[in-house]
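Look over what follows to help learners.
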Amino acid sequence: MSARAASVAFCLAVASMTAAGPAQEPYTPRVGQPGKDVVWVPTPPELVEKMLDLAQVTKDDYVIDLGSGDGRNIIAAARRGARGLGVEFNPEMVALSRRLAEEAGVAERATFAQGDMFEADISKATVMALYLLPVNLEKLLPKFQALAPGTRIVSNTFGFQEWDPDARATVEGGACSNWCEALLWIVPASAAGAWRLGDTETLTLTQLHQVLYGSLRIGDRDVPLTGARMRGYDITFTAGDRVYSGRVSGKTMAGTVTGDGGARPWRATRL
């Protein structure tokens, strides 16, 4: 190549680089940056793992995170073999999540969508993995209550006004200095109402989330219930010296009752 041709080629290359502009740095989120509904504060990795442990996430689960930020909850779940969806309003965060999922080798199982978390379809979730403020959680509560019984909801630190967690776990040390408690709720089946046990006994229940209140009418006596709770479809309660455990399935419930000198099956039908 002649000196003149080389000079022309060099000038063209410089012009091309100038026209393209300087190379853009990869998007890096800033802790505390504002979002549509919350500021972005990432959950420490140790607590992400503790949350997934508490929810017992496996390869059979479909995990959804609302306000998924950089995607760490969904990526961590995908590393366990689960499939997941993160819904995030900030499109730059969505792009970052997809890049991080690719780098982690889990992009086939971890997907991310740009959208409003209050409008998202969460009906397929078996686990919700969240880090939201109480005001956000309360607004989303009707959608959580409509999930299939047995769905696990796990959250970093914040919970609901009237729905107590089924379990808690804390991470100490490491990167966790604040906001280091994992809370778990299990969506309960509906057991409220009147139920007929056998020919002579009637079970009457009221329900606030997983907690049950009521009595068992035995003959002409109303025996108050203690320790009555739902855990997904599973029900437990004590009436006098009888301890009942069973499973609710639509208009029936059945299980085992212990007491009165032994154990026997029981079955109830909703009236």
